[in-house]
Design goal:
This protein is mainly β. The protein has one domain: Porin (Beta Barrel). The protein has 1 helix and 10 strands. Strand 4 and strand 5 form a beta hairpin. The radius of gyration is 17 Å and the shape is elongated. The two termini are 28 Å apart. The N terminus is likely disordered.
Length: 173
């Protein structure tokens, strides 16, 4: 099911990009791409970011991570949403820093029951966001220290500081 839904979403976003009105060279309204992180719950995720106000954006991620320990392995699927409030970094046009927070839901799958289950966490977030002038590319780096409200299994601790990520997105409008 995931293999059919993701291409449909990406196709619809690309169609939207073809009819979207251009903004200034360094600003964008929405962007779609990938996020790579060191988090417990995802290593790779699809990333969609859209501004709902001039400084405020919502970022949505759908990701996965595969773990392997001698003797067994498990697989995580995750979804996260965050609000980010942006501030310009002068004098570099297109460069902003942001702060905010969000929620993550994860489900771990394994044949070993101690490594399966549903988890829920919250996180503050902060980072930098850059939109290249002249090309439809946005890059961002963020930190999301995650506090587990519900741990999916015995592997996870209640707090994980090292959830840092890098995103590359195609700006669609």
């Amino acid at each position: 099911m995931f293999k059919t839904i993701l291409p449909a979403i990406l196709f619809s976003l690309l169609v939207e990009a073809s009819v979207a009105q251009p903004l200034s060279q360094s600003n964008y309204q929405s962007a779609v791409g990938m996020r790579v992180s060191g988090g417990y719950y995802d290593l790779f995720s699809a990333s969609y970011k859209t501004f709902i106000t001039e400084p405020g954006a919502i970022e949505l991620n759908a990701g996965f991570r595969n773990y392997s320990i001698p003797g067994f392995s498990w697989f995580n699927l995750s979804a996260s949403a965050s609000y980010q409030h942006h501030f310009n970094i002068e004098p570099v046009e297109g460069l902003r820093w942001f702060i905010g927070g969000g929620l993550v839901a994860v489900n771990s799958f394994s044949s070993y029951s101690s490594y399966s289950g549903f988890g829920l966490g919250i996180f503050p977030t902060g980072g930098v966001d850059y939109k290249f002038a002249g090309i439809p590319l946005n890059l961002s780096a963020d930190l999301r220290p995650t506090i587990s409200l519900i741990k999916p299994n015995g592997y996870y601790s209640g707090f994980y500081l090292g959830n840092a990520g890098l995103s590359a997105r195609y700006t669609i409008r």
